Amino acid sequence: xxxxxxxxxxxxxxxxxxxxxxxxxxxxxxxxxxxxxxxxxxxxxxxxxxxxxxxxxxxxxxxxxxxxxxxxxxxxxxxxxxxxxxxxxxxxxxxxxxxxxxxxxxxxxxxxxxxxxxxxxxxxxxxxxxxxxxxxxxxxxxxxxxxxxxxxxxxxxxxxxxxxxxxxxxxxxxxxxxxxxxxxxxxxxxxxxxxxxxxxxxxxxxxxxxxxxxxxxxxxxxxxxxxxxxxxxxxxxxxxxxxxxxxxxxxxxxxxxxxxxxxxxxxxxxxxxxxxxxxxxxxxxxxxxxxxxxxxxxxxxxxxxxxxxxxxxxxxxxxxxxxxxxxxxxxxxxxxxxxxxxxxxxxxxxxxxxxxxxxxxxxxxxxxxxxxxxxxxxxxxxxxxxxxxxxxxxxxxxxxxxxxxxxxxxxx
Amino acid sequence: xxxxxxxxxxxxxxxxxxxxxxxxxxxxxxxxxxxxxxxxxxxxxxxxxxxxxxxxxxxxxxxxxxxxxxxxxxxxxxxxxxxxxxxxxxxxxxxxxxxxxxxxxxxxxxxxxxxxxxxxxxxxxxxxxxxxxxxxxxxxxxxxxxxxxxxxxxxxxxxxxxxxxxxxxxxxxxxxxxxxxxxxxxxxxxxxxxxxxxxxxxxxxxxxxxxxxxxxxxxxxxxxxxxxxxxxxxxxxxxxxxxxxxxxxxxxxxxxxxxxxxxxxxxxxxxxxxxxxxxxxxxxxxxx
Lengths: 412, 288
What we know:
The complex is a heterodimer. By secondary structure, chain A is α/β, with parallel strands linked by helices. Chain A has helices spanning about 5-20, 45-65, 85-95, 110-120, 145-160, 175-190, 210-215, 230-240, 260, 285-295, 305-325, 330-335, 385-390, and strands at about 30-35, 70-75, 100-105, 125, 135, 140, 165-170, 195-200, 220-225, 245-250, 270-275, 340-345, 345-350, 360-365, 375-380, 400. Chain A is about 40% helix and about 20% strand. Chain A has a seven-stranded mixed beta sheet with strand order 8-7-9-10-11-14-15, sandwiched between helices. By secondary structure, chain B is mostly helical. Chains A and B meet through helix 2, strand 8, helix 7 and helix 8 of A and helix 1, helix 4, strand 2, helix 10 and helix 11 of B.
C-alpha cells in the first residue's frame, strides 16, 4: 500500500466516522455507470432488454451493499440507433459526467464509433453483445460470444447435418461483412461451398428477389445474419414463398427473439449457438428469469444482449472489488491474473487475459415448427481463443485494432 | 424458360406494387396538394398496427385491412383540420410540422404499444413454377396496386368531386369564386391520401415486422416515385413506378440488393437532372 492510499484511507475513515452519526450511505459518492443503449429507433426491441438487464443488476447490487460499499448511479442515455449520437453521448458521459465505467452499444458500427473516444480516456468500456470478434483493445472488455464460440461450433454442425452448400444473407455493415468472412474461412476449412452471398442494406424490407436468388443457387442451408426489424421481414416472406430451407445464425432467436415476434412456422428449422436464451432450463437460469420477470412483467423475451448487460455489471463489481480500485490499470491487473470470473446464470464465465473477451458455455439450439426451442448439443465452456492465437496479447501490448481472418496482426 | 419469364414478371410486379402502394397516398398529398408530408410513413405504420390489432381481436384479414385504411383516412382528416390546414401556403413549414408530428407519433407508439408487436403471418398460399416457389399473397399485392391506380384515375378523372378537386389544386381562389367548398375538398383529398397510406401499411402488415419506425422503410421509395413522376400525378406516378421497378428488378436480380438500391437512386438523380418536371412533363407534352 503506498502512502497516498494510506492518507486516502485515513481520510475515508475520518469521513465515515463523522458521517456515521448522520446517514452512513452519504459517506461515499456513488459509482457512476454510463450506459448507452437504444430504447427508441429501429433497434429498440433489442435494446430495451439491455436497459432492463442493467437496471435489474444495479438494483440487486445496490440492495446488497453496492460495489466496495458505494452505491451505483446508472446514467442511461438513448442514442436511438444513431452512431453520431453514440459519439456525442459517449463524450458527454466520459468527459462531463466523468463516469467510472461505460457500458453499451448495440451494432458493431456503434461500438467502432465509440471505441476511439473511449481509447482517449482511462475509463473501462464494456461491450455486451455477441459480435463478429477480433477487437484487441485494452480499454474494451467484451461480455458477449464471438465467432470461435458461435461459428466454429454452428457451421460444422450445419454442414454435417444438412450439407456442404450454404447461401449467406448478411446485413451490409461491418458485422455482416466480417461474419460472412468467418463463414467463408470455416467453410473452406470444411471443404464446403458458399454458393451465394447477398449483402442487404439496412432498412431493406422486401425480399422476393433474394428468395428467388436463393432458389436458383440451390443451397443446402442458409446462413442468416440479417439485422434489424426491416431485414427480419425476410423470414415471413421466405415462409410465405415456401422456401423451406434449414437456417443457421449467430444472432437469431436468442438475440432478436424472432420466434416470439413472428407467427409460426416462419422460424421453423432455425439453428443457433448461444451462451444464453430464455429457454435455458437450469436452477440458476430459472432463478434469474424469475427475478427479471418480477421486475419487468411485460418483457417479451430476455435476450442474450440483455443477459450479457446484466452480467457486465456483476463482472465490473467482481473486478473492482478484487482490484479495490475503479482505475482501468488496476482492473486490468485483475484480468491479467486470469482471476476475473463470476458465477453467471449460464454458469461460471471468465475474462481471457490476452483478449479481454469472455468464456462462455455454448449450446446449439433449434427452433421447431411451433417455434419451440430445443437444445441439440451442449459444447460446455468455450474460451475466446482466436485473438490470443493470432498474437493479440493485451497484457503485453495494446493494439487498439480489430482483426479479421483477412486482417491479422503484422508479425514483428 | 417460361419459369424464368414468369419469375421476371413476378419480381417486377413485386417491386412495382411496393412503389405504387407506398407512393399512392403521397402522390395526392404531396404531388397534388403540395404538402410535404413527412408523417407519410406514420400513416403507413398506423394502417399496419390497426390491421394487426383487429386481426388479433378476431376480425378477418381483408376486413381488418379495409378498416385500417379507413382509420388512417379519418385520422388524416383530423390531422388536416388541426395542423396541415394552417400550412397550405407555407410548404416548407408544413415539412417541419409534419416531421414533428412523425416524431411524436413514433415515440408515443413506442411508449404505448411497446418496441415490437407479434406478427400475424402472411395468408397461406404458395405455388411452384419450374424450380421456384412463389407466395400468392405477393400477387394479391400487385392486384391491389393496379386497383389503387384505377381507383385514383376514376375518382379524379371521372367524378364531379375529381374535377372540383383538380380545379381547387390548380387555383384555389378561382375554384372558390366559382362556388367550390375548397376547405372540404382539401380535407377529403388529404383523407384519401392518408387512407391510401394506411392501405399500404395494412397490405404489407402480414409480411413485415411491426415496429413504430416501420414507416421509414417506405418513405424513401414513396417520395422518389412521386418526385420523378412529376407535376401531373395521375399521369406520372404509374410510369415512374414502372420505370423504377424495371431498373431495380434488373439490378437486384443480377447484382443483388445493394446495387439495386444504389442504381435506382442513381436513376432518380439522372431523371431529375434531365427532366426537372418529372416524367409526366414528357407524357403530357406528347399527349397534346
